[in-house]
């Protein structure tokens, strides 16, 4: 199975790294291509032993599976440039935020089979939270292939295509929200007199432990929170500050805005396609 990556950025690297570490694909079967950054291709080749290709038409025409890992704003130019090199039996897997299966088919000018996926960068360590949505004409084997592939780099849920916007706002962008919290915790720890290294270790383990508790105990987050919060104790005092600052509402607004942005990115491309009548 030959896999070509169109785009060699953070998401492509996270997936490639996960696939190779988990033995899902041989480096020699993976071909990576981008727009112009040859240094980036050389780096990816050096780290992962994959083939890199400045001739993207060649990479695409030789592949059984083409991963679209370009930014939504570059989708029109990138997909048009490969349209005549995509074979009819090639499976397209797109990780583009917001961009619909229909837009991809329109740009590739064929009823190509498309699976949309929204992974996250934790694919690097085999812990992506991915949701996929499967285009109408995708075969059972292709669906199983995608599920196996994404399950190898983390968890894989199946959703309706329209729900991918919410998935993007939640778990696609989600690692950034967690890092934002980690950054704030780190600043707070230093302010309270802890050394950087000690603080980092405590924060990482706290996040890891809480995530494991959610997964293994199956208790509701509110229940787990109550178990930490002694009446009149430190947690209650701390959480009261979060409540005063309406932190829960801010998090809901954050996910809502990111979800809306995913819709906007898809709509922007649709408008561009309508304007140029593709
Ligand atoms: N980053 C994340 O956490 C996640 C990202 N995604 C999605 O993944 C996609 C990629 O994001 P990310 O990896 O962060 O982006 P990056 O900016 O890191 O990488 C984009 C890549 O696309 C390449 N590219 C741009 N135009 C073309 C073109 N015309 N032909 C071929 N290659 C091209 C760039 O090449 P060059 O450098 O040479 O210009 C670069 O390698 C996006 O659609 C995003 O929505 C999904 C889930 C999570
Ligand atoms: O910020 C973005 O648009 C992409 C999609 C999800 C995560 N990163």
Automatic annotation (TrEMBL):
One of its GO terms (cellular component) is cytoplasm. Residues 2-98 form the Pyrroline-5-carboxylate reductase catalytic N-terminal domain. Transmembrane segments: none annotated. It is an enzyme of class 1 (oxidoreductase). Pathway: Amino-acid biosynthesis; L-proline biosynthesis; L-proline from L-glutamate 5-semialdehyde: step 1/1. InterPro entries: 6-PGluconate_DH-like_C_sf (IPR008927), NAD(P)-bd_dom_sf (IPR036291), P5C_Rdtase_cat_N (IPR028939), P5CR-like_CS (IPR053790), P5CR_dimer (IPR029036), Pyrroline-COOH_reductase (IPR000304). GO terms for molecular function: pyrroline-5-carboxylate reductase activity. NADP(+) binds at residues 6-11, 69-72. Its EC number is 1.5.1.2. The keyword DNA-binding does not apply. It catalyses: L-proline + NAD(+) = (S)-1-pyrroline-5-carboxylate + NADH + 2 H(+); L-proline + NADP(+) = (S)-1-pyrroline-5-carboxylate + NADPH + 2 H(+). Keywords: Amino-acid biosynthesis, Cytoplasm, NADP, Oxidoreductase, Proline biosynthesis. Residues 161-265 form the Pyrroline-5-carboxylate reductase dimerisation domain. It holds the Pfam family F420_oxidored. One of its GO terms (biological process) is L-proline biosynthetic process. Catalyzes the reduction of 1-pyrroline-5-carboxylate (PCA) to L-proline. This is Pyrroline-5-carboxylate reductase. It comes from Sutcliffiella cohnii. The gene is proC.
């Amino acid at each position: 199975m030959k896999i070509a990556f169109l785009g060699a950025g953070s998401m492509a690297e996270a997936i490639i790294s996960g696939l190779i570490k988990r033995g899902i694909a041989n480096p020699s079967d993976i071909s990576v291509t981008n727009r112009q950054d040859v240094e980036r291709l050389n780096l990816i080749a050096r780290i992962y032993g994959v083939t890199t290709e400045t001739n993207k038409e060649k990479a695409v025409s030789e592949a059984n599976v083409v991963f679209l890992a370009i930014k939504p704003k570059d989708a029109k130019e990138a997909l048009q440039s490969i349209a005549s090199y995509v074979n009819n039996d090639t499976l397209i897997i797109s990780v583009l935020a917001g961009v619909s299966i229909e837009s991809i088919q329109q740009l590739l000018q064929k009823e190509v089979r498309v699976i949309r996926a929204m992974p996250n960068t934790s694919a690097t360590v085999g812990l992506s939270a991915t949701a996929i949505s499967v285009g109408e004409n995708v075969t059972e084997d292709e669906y199983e292939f995608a599920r196996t592939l994404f399950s190898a780099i983390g968890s894989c849920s199946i959703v309706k295509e329209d729900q991918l916007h919410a998935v993007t706002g939640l778990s696609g962008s989600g690692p950034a929200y967690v890092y934002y919290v980690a950054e704030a915790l780190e600043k707070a720890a230093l302010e309270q007199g802890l050394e950087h290294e000690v603080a980092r270790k405590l924060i990482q383990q706290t996040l890891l432990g809480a995530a494991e508790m959610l997964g293994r105990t199956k208790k509701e987050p509110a229940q787990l929170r109550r178990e930490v919060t002694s009446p009149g104790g430190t947690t209650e005092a701390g959480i009261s500050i979060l409540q005063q600052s309406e932190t829960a509402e801010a998090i809901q607004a954050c996910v809502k805005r990111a979800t809306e942005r995913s819709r906007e990115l898809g709509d922007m491309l649709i408008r561009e396609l309508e304007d140029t009548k593709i």
